Amino acid sequence: MINQYLLKEVISHFDFVGSLLKCEPYGSGHINDTYLLEYKIPHMGVVPIILQRMNTNVFKKPVELMENIMNVTSFLREKITENGGDPERETLTVILNKAGKPYYKDSEGNYWRAYHFITCATGYDEVKCDEDFYQSALAFGKFQSLLADYPAEKLHETIPDFHNTKARFAVFKDAVEKDVCHRAKDVQAEIQFVLEHVDLAHVLGDMQASGELPLRVTHNDTKLNNVLIDDKTHQGICVIDLDTVMPGLAINDFGDSIRFGASTGAEDEKDLSKIECDMHLFEVYTKGFIKGCDGRLTDEEIKALPLGAKVMTLECGMRFLTDYLQGDTYFKTKYPTHNLDRCRTQFKLVSDMEKKWDTMNEIVSKYNI
Ligand code: ATP
Ligand code: MG
Ligand code: MG
Questions:
Q1: pLDDT tens column, 259-272
Q2: Is 92 in the pocket of ligand 1 (CB under 6 A)?
Q3: Which residue of 8, 172, 228, 328 has the fewest CB atoms within a 10 Å radius of its CB?
Q4: What positions belong to coiled-coil segments (predicted)?
Q5: Which of 241, 242, 257, 331 has most ligand 1 atoms within 8 Å of CB, for mutation?
Q6: How far apart are the CA of 115 and the centre of ligand 2, in A?
Q7: Which tens digit of pLDDT belongs to each residue from 316-351?
Q8: Domain-by-domain residue ranges, the chain?
Q9: What would be the CATH architecture of the domain defined by 4-119?
Q10: C-alpha dihedral over 209, 210, 211, 213, to 10 degrees?
């Protein structure tokens, strides 16, 4: 818990106008500490503000991270304005501190940032209906189309090699060889599964190197609750949580959404008969994403969307298995085989996608017009 003195110190370094009515923890984010501040301004009403303590354990370079966010949101603001949209609601607006910086480093070394609060919109934690999933696909697709002209290579890699599946495969192999917890003997089938799919660890890197897939600005955390949905119109209006914005492949953003959004069960479901890649949800997301991209993806990228889903799912399963072999040092676990259960759901999904491969490709070509 952050102490009140520290919060006071932080707030005093911003030029927030009015009298502070409220300052309390907000939302269900897992990475940063998010606060909602409310200021009363005479004759104007109440102005809400989001204040976040950034997680510097996860993001080691907060200054570079904020540089990415400033650059991407400035670019988005211009594009949204050109298209006749409302940049105040359709992208994040960073509030500079009194020194003109997009962050404040407090006396204990924490990094803080502030955003305009986007009112009358909600980030939903769970997919309750197809329409929400469709709206998030549309919003993440639109994010791609608005940023299609942004020079992605100029962004900092906030987490190096985040989706470098080849590098993650090398870490996996090393974990198997070192076998520090003597767990490898119990997970031979899972290890074998990865080894049989080694091609998938290389394919996207190769396609990028050959120029078949272009480098894009990617979001890298395309969860439903990272899109704010307008309370009145129910349209996805704003992509938030830009910490992981980095150079990457559009099909990886798509693939990760499918990995968790089109699965019929929880990530740690023990009963694998409950785990499938739902083709209806796959279609809902594909339709929204391609529409949102508005013709800015290449034909090769669109055709590679199912591959993005398969590779992201394999990569994620491989990361769970690696962590299991290394003694559960990265992902938080609730019981000893938690990472193994998670790895199994991901591999079940990969196998299921392989079974449904023709259907997935047919769905993509149906919307590739
Ligand atoms: P995650 O676990 O998704 O990584 P996080 O800890 O990085 O989350 P955010 O997603 O940035 O945190 O913010 C947490 C929540 O605060 C969001 O889900 C959203 O509900 C709310 N929120 C963040 N920024 C804004 C904003 N500018 N306007 C309104 N609500 C916001
Ligand atoms: Mg979030
Ligand atoms: Mg986040």
A1: 999 999 999 999 99
A2: yes
A3: 8
A4: none
A5: 241
A6: 14
A7: 999 999 999 999 999 999 999 999 999 999 999 999
A8: 4-119, 130-367
A9: 2-Layer Sandwich (3.30)
A10: -70
